[in-house]
Amino acid sequence: MKPILNIFGVWLMLTFVSMPIFFTTPSLAVDPPYQSQMQQLLNALGSLYYLQPLCGDNDNDWRLHAAELIALDEPNDDRMQRLNGSFNQGYHAYARLHQTCAPSTEQAISRLLNDADRLTRDIRSRYSE
To answer: Residue 12: inside a domain, yes or no?
Structure first.
């Protein structure tokens, strides 16, 4: 009878020792402290990408600027999807409201340029090396 108890005891011990392996969740990457500001900035760039051509300003390629900014940040796949999603969300948010250039469109462009400038300065001053 003792060998059976010993085998049972070893099995029980191995079960409890290996339990943390089965019940741990995979660790997720931690976002950098500027993630929220980056998403806001990319949202503004997406909005500008849609709005400025409506008012005849084609000087800035905001999509290219956003792509370069994302590439410089070197995000993992999850963060890259969220950053690209923020850009797309900004684009579509104004596409529903503005089809032509109007005074409200010009006001939105001015506000978005100010927001993008403020966010860029904030990220650069607080987090650049």
So the answer is: no
What's the predicted TM-score (pTM) here? 0.76
Nearest to 45 by CA among 127, 113, 118: 113
Give the domain range for residue 123.
Answer: 35-127
Q: What is the 3-state secondary structure (H, E, C) of the chain?
A: CHHHHHHHHHHHHHHHHHHHHHHCCCCCCCCCCCHHHHHHHHHHHHHHHHHHHHCCCCCCCHHHHHHHHHHHHCCCHHHHHHHHHHHHHHHHHHHCCCCCCCHHHHHHHHHHHHHHHHHHHHHHHHHCC
Per-residue pLDDT band for 29 (boundaries 50, 70, 90) equals low
- The domain tally of the chain equals 1
DSSP 31: P
Q: pLDDT digits over 42-75, tens only?
A: 999 999 999 999 999 888 899 999 999 999 999 9
In a domain, 8, yes or no: no
